[in-house]
Amino acid sequence: QVQLVESGGGLVQPGGSLRLSCAASGSIFSINAMGWYRQAPEKERELVAAITMGGSTNYADSVKGRFTISRHDAKNTVYLQMNSLKPEDTAVYYCNAKVPGLGMTHDFWGQGTQVTVSS
Question: Is the pLDDT of residue 28 over 90?
């Protein structure tokens, strides 16, 4: 099993910045990729950014150029640096880890951290 704990959410004004952190524990060496998803009220959960253990990254078009995903291997921690925040970025942000299984990929999720962008 993999356990994920997010931190760093909060209230910020438009144009501001936040950095989210996700600390992984458990069977961490089985993880193929980690990422951040977000879910706004009455909307589907969507991928924000992802990073493989090899360092390849992927971003949603809506955050490209503003958000950066990174990881610190020694700390088993993934970060999401969010700059130039917009009100539409308001959502609960969830850390995700993908673990290969027999015939499928298993997803593990953190508890979520609220990000609110408002003036």
Answer: no
